[in-house]
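Action item from last week, closing it out:
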Amino acid sequence: MDESPLQPDRFRDPLLQGLTMRLIAAGAAGASISATIAYSGTLTSLPMVLEGSIAIGSGVLTMLAMSPWRRLRALSRYLAELRRFAQQLEAVVDGTRTTPLRELIVDCEHELGRISRAAHDLAVEALTSRSHARLVNRRMNETVRRETRRAIRNLEQQAVTDPLTGLGNRRAMQARIEELLATTSASDACMAVLAIDMDRFKDINDALGHEAGDQCLVFLAHLLKAALRRDDCAIRLGGDEFIVLMPNQSEQGAMAVAKRLQDLFLQMPWSHESPPRPTLSMGLTLGHPRSTSEIDDLIRQADKALYQSKRNGRSRITSTKARA
């Protein structure tokens, strides 16, 4: 198995090896000089204590003279570089780095240089991965927020929408009434309310099934969306009952809308002999509402006019007098 270049048995810095060898050689030389002087008998005329002191002193001077002072100074610089490298590496790990990553590299040929270059490469890779992770996390958060907002909008839309026809429901009508009051009450504009009911709807459900009845309701909803103005509001109250609120609309204009809806509804494809083709009965009323209760009253009047149309033979439009 290949050994890593940073494994302990391969961690041999030339500076430290050379320094160790020089110190060993200087110590050996000093010890040799001391022993030579002590056993040579050169200083036998001197007292033994003085002779021993001279021998030891000569050995020490020899050892100092042969000591690798340059390498010791290099070792001092080596230790200073090692301290600086350790401080910068800690700053990278802690995230408090204020200098470029390239400052982490120690420009030398000994082992510290190799370690610093390896640490630099690892730090670059780690910071790149961290930046990528932050980018992915930010994009995920943005996606979650966007999808959450979209889901909330969809839920809000579903809360005010009839699922079969796509028209507004009763809740949507109440919200639309509040919007309309802000304009009609200030300008004293006329509002037309049209109540719509499909003739023979129960017969269709009983004879052909609810799927055929649903197709009739969807067709009528498409007609309402296409025939009404942007400010008008079409609501499915339930079953085959619909309410249309038309702000700033005259009686003639509202009646023209009602007749056009009847004519267009007769164009719905119908291949059944029984029950006969469904038609629309309608009730129309107009007024100048200034409150929610007055609009509710207009809706009740339109509903009464609708049932008058039913009693008069279906497929009719009954209009009540406009309220002052």
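Closing note: Residues 60 and 105 are 40 Å apart (CA to CA).
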